């Protein structure tokens, strides 16, 4: 049996934000107990593939730049464009000052960005430099992180959810606007149409406090982890 399909390991390690590390073994055990659909999905996929996404900036600002670049793109396309962006700045994420100092059209052409995304990057840089976006986000609760981020043009609720789940690694986030997740829930729960947010909240209620972990299993089922 392939490793990706093997049964849940007793030693899955620890995952989560610095405030409250999550024991993955406990999270998986909870999901298996709480929801028979999730139990079948974990049995099918195995529980050892919830690794972090590779090639991501470790700092908050870099992660937000990467999020803007990756909006509405496949993972492969997003990585390609982000690499072109960082190549323009010596292989690293440009600082806010560098984004604002660069010519928008030259930046757009060099990185392969849309004009809208260049404007979003400039908005992010402006918010950081003028202090209206505080990047000390680790200690804030989820709703306050979301409020900080959506004040920036180009960072909507979906981007804020992805930041919480994959960068801050908060364990109990449900991104009701994610199309891949909606498709996975429709398919796995036998729904006739894509679920609306209220239906998703209802289905996901038994997953608490590990909705992030459940979502990652559902994305794996579609091989559609967000870019």
List keywords for this structure.
mainly alpha, Endonuclease III, domain 1, 55% helix, Endonuclease Iii, domain 2, 2 domains, 12 helices, 227 residues, two-stranded antiparallel sheet
Characterise the protein shown here.
The structure is a single chain. With 227 residues, this protein is an all-alpha fold. It folds into two domains: 3-12 and 28-52 and 172-222, Endonuclease Iii, domain 2; 60-167, Hypothetical protein, domain 2 (Endonuclease III, domain 1), CATH 1.10.340. 55% of the residues lie in helices and 2% in strands. The protein contains twelve helices and two strands. It has helices spanning 24-34, 36-45, 60-70, 75-87, 96-101, 104-111, 115-129, 142-150, 157-167, 179-188, 197-204, 211-222, and strands at residues 14-15, 22-23. The protein has a two-stranded antiparallel sheet. A hairpin with a 6-residue loop joins β1 (14-15) and β2. α1 (24-34) crosses α2 (36-45) and α3 crosses α9 (157-167). Residues 1-13 have low confidence and may be disordered.
- In CATH, the homologous superfamily of the largest domain goes by the name Hypothetical protein, domain 2
* Architecture per CATH nomenclature, i.e. the level-2 architecture of the largest domain: Orthogonal Bundle
- How many domains make up the 3D coordinates? 2
Give Rg in angstroms. 18 Å
CATH-defined fold name of the largest domain: Endonuclease III, domain 1
Strand order of the largest sheet: 1-2
**Care to count the β-strands?**
2
- Number of H/I helices: 12
Shape: elongated
The CATH class of the largest domain, by name, is: Mainly Alpha
